[in-house]
Design brief:
Layout: H1 2-7, E1 9-11, H2 22-36, H3 54-57, H4 61-77, E2 80-92, E3 95-101, H5 115-128, E4 134-140, E5 144-151, H6 154-162, H7 175-186, E6 194-200, H8 214-223, E7 227-233, E8 237-240, E9 246-249, H9 254-264, E10 268-271, H10 274-287, E11 291-302, H11 304-322
Parallel strand pairs: 3-4, 3-6, 6-7, 7-10
Antiparallel strand pairs: 1-2, 2-11, 4-5, 8-9
Helix pairs in contact: 4-11, 5-6, 5-10, 7-8, 8-9
């Protein structure tokens, strides 16, 4: 703890610190002068002086305390400080809703460890790269649910992104209801731009309980002026053709995703692996720029009083030893 505290110290008057070099010089001068001025007298034998007591071994301790006090005073005069730099991001951001498919197929392992785990990780990195944006989270499968409302509290949002699980909703793939729910979250949000990033690995499956189909959701998004970026996630599959050969095809409904994106002014992307998905989010990050300003505030905490307290302690120790244990007659 003390070592970390010392590492954080900086000095407002660094030009004072070289004077610390005077401390050993003064100590050496005193040591030399005491040797040359030491009194001498004749004795018949010096054997008794070869036996040194603890008191004799510690005779120099008061001087050590004196020079330690002097060193602490010099450091205090250099004004040691701890600098605390606080940064705050501000500016005009964009309102974004991450709309993520959590159907059972998102557990496919063509992405390692699976599609949903990679989608969570990459979406989290995207949130961290948008410090001033208002971001929300909608998940969908056989139904749609607002996992986190639009907010600038990104720490809480990241926790919700980590908590996305397949099976948390009725299974299925209702792209239309996911899109409609995301549009609804953006409807009353004041922002210079409102964006949805819709990620899915499948195609619309329409049970009898479906409320909003994709075309209706697309019309709502266009009417509300919401831009939608769509991402088709997953590797291609090989299927047999009627001619007896084989061809590669995607499980995702690419025509629908392309139509949603182009109609709302967004773009459609295909992500066949993690690197491609990261590239998609990086491209969206470049396309949707926020006006970010970093406000930096620096505060200094003075720490010189600790060194003055240490100097006072060393001086008191010197005086206590000099007038008790090492007291000498005049």
């Amino acid at each position: 703890m003390l070592y970390e505290w010392i590492q954080q110290l900086s000095f407002a008057r660094e030009w004072v610190l070289p004077f610390l070099g005077l401390v050993p010089v003064l100590a050496w001068i005193q040591w030399r002068s005491r040797r040359t001025m030491r009194p001498a007298f004749r004795v018949s034998t010096a054997a008794v002086f070869r036996v040194r007591t603890l008191r004799q071994n510690l005779l120099g301790l008061p001087n050590i305390f004196r020079y330690l006090a002097l060193a602490c005073i010099i450091v205090a005069l250099a004004r040691p400080q701890i600098k605390d730099v606080q940064e705050r991001n501000r500016g005009e951001g964009i309102a974004i809703v991450l709309c993520i498919d959590v159907s059972g197929s998102m557990l496919s392992q063509d992405f390692s460890p699976n599609r949903l785990a990679v989608a969570r990780a990459v979406a989290g990195d995207f949130v961290k790269a948008r410090p001033v944006d208002q971001i929300g989270l909608v998940v969908f499968s056989g139904e749609a649910f607002t996992q986190y409302p639009i907010s600038t509290d990104h720490e809480a949002l990241l926790e919700q992104v980590k908590n996305i699980r397949s099976g948390m909703l009725q299974d299925g793939t209702l792209i239309g209801e996911g899109l409609a729910t995301a549009v609804q979250r953006l409807e009353d949000v004041p922002a210079k731009s409102r964006v949805i990033i819709l990620l899915t690995d499948g195609r619309e499956e329409a049970p009898e309980t479906r409320i909003i189909d994709p075309e209706t959701a697309l019309g709502i998004a266009r009417a509300k002026g919401v831009k939608v970026y769509t991402i088709g996630m997953g590797s291609d599959v090989v299927v047999a053709s009627a001619e007896g050969g084989a061809r590669r095809t995607a499980n995702v409904d690419e025509p629908l995703l392309q139509r949603i994106a182009s109609t709302t002014g967004g773009a459609y992307f295909r992500a066949r692996d993690r690197q491609a998905l990261e590239g998609v989010y990086a491209r969206i990050n470049r396309l949707e720029k926020s006006d970010v300003q970093v406000v930096r505030k620096t505060r200094y905490y003075e720490e010189f009083h600790w060194f003055l307290a240490a100097a006072l302690l060393f001086l008191l120790l010197e005086l206590a030893l000099r007038y008790t244990l090492f007291r000498t007659l005049p």
